[in-house]
Amino acid sequence: MLPFKVSPIGIPSALTWNDFAFITNFVDEIPINLFVEIGAYMGGLAAVMAYRTLYRPDFTYLGIEILDNKPHPVFKKELQRLTRADLIIGDCFDQEVKDRVKGFVSRAGCATILCDGQHKPREIIEYHEMLKPGDFLIVHDFSEEKMSKENPARIDVAPILSKPNFVEATPIEWQGMTSMFAIKKV
């Protein structure tokens, strides 16, 4: 079992309060119109983002989770009544899933993709290309130790992160306070 840190609305999450604060602040300050979460797991962050669609008419949430039995059943039921929130149960690397996300990203004003599944380096590689200028990619637990555990094939993400059309976008006030790392496509 994961060492869950918080349960914002009763659904456990592997994020810390600082991670939640970073994401909600980021979504509001930019402002983000589409938030895609790869690795929704039980739905702790997913529920917060999905309910945000009720209060922000310009905001859409799309989650992806490979394990159908992990998202909280009440959350899955609630999604049926939310018109701008959805959860894809499937592998984020399946072409059909990627095509669906790409369609959402292409129609959104400003999109953000959160890589928080079990294969973050591959998620970064396969999802960064669908971003438009002005869009963001956020990676949870972006550290050398965590990335090497999730990266047995030693996929090198440094070339992506150093491309001239991507710049680091983690606000200075959040650096060191959260395990999130953000880049912006320019």
Automatic annotation (TrEMBL):
Gene3D superfamilies: Vaccinia Virus protein VP39
Record Pfam families: RMNT_CmcI (PF04989)
UniProt-recorded Gene Ontology molecular function terms: methyltransferase activity
GO BP annotation list: lipid biosynthetic process
Signal peptide from the UniProt entry: none
SUPFAM superfamilies listed in its UniProt record: S-adenosyl-L-methionine-dependent methyltransferases
Listed InterPro entries: RNMT_CmcI, SAM-dependent_MTases_sf
Name listed for the protein in its UniProt record: Rhamnosyl O-methyltransferase
